[in-house]
Model the fold of this input.
Amino acid sequence: MREAGLTKENLVNKMTKIVITGDDGFVGMNLVDSFVENEPKTQTIGLSKKTIASNDRIRKYTHYSVDINDIYTLYSVLDKEKPDLIIHLAAEADVGKSYEFPFDFLRVNVIGTFNLLEWLRHNKGSKMIYFSTDEVFLNVSDVPSKEDDKFSPENAYACSKAAAETYVAAYNKAFDTNVMIIRPFNIFGRYQKQNRLWSKIIRTALDNKPLTLFKDTGNHKRGWIYAENIYHTLKFLREKGDFRSSYNLKYDGYYSVGDIKDIILKKLGKESLFKGYVETGRMKDDYAYLLDSTKIERMGYKPKFTFEAGLDKTIEWYRNNK
Done:
């Protein structure tokens, strides 16, 4: 029974223990930083397959080496910690890899999520936010997809995320769990691997080396969200959102790969480093995804950082961490 006068915002403030799966990944690392910086009274706990999460060098927080498909270890940790909230990021997310090793995506993204849902089924005091993707919807150029639109995944990665979403929705109805689905766009910021677009362009430019991009991806368009905005979006949804609903996130900017290259090189004054587009050896890459974010915008959401501010902060981080 809810205490008298206890608002959603107060409920958020009462959450004292949060588990982040996939805390060794780029988004997870940013989230750990944000929780430690913005919610010092909240105990932040990370779960990932790696023995030592990459972010241990940055922040002091609790980390467990756990594969979400190792249910015995996973459940023992969750039973011990009893988190108020699980933020489920852990996933196989490389689309190119999904063409070569599709079973990995089924195992981690679907069965791994199922394992967490099963724990939640028996631990109703805990909630979860599930990170899905804009790629569960149709690959389009100018038609934004709404939360309840039909799924149309076109690769094993997108298929696995869509399948996991259906499990989430079913468990909320059948077992009275409280799991929120969010669908972000592409995320940029600090800690990205060197082969990722933003990191590749910025690092190459800062090193004054020539830059090339794949020919068939230059015009591909994506929504872009600055990593620090993810935390503030989650905070907003924890206060204002419905834990049995889904939300398309709002992008900070919508640009093609070529646009991003131009924006970054111009900002650094390194336009001459770009040497053109080269033939690609990549697997099929979808042209564009676009989400309708009307739902979260009508709730009053606005990004904390603009695209330009995120760009400046990202470049500055790479400049200081070459």
Remarks:
- The domain at 8-187+224-248 is CATH 3.40.50.720 (Rossmann fold).
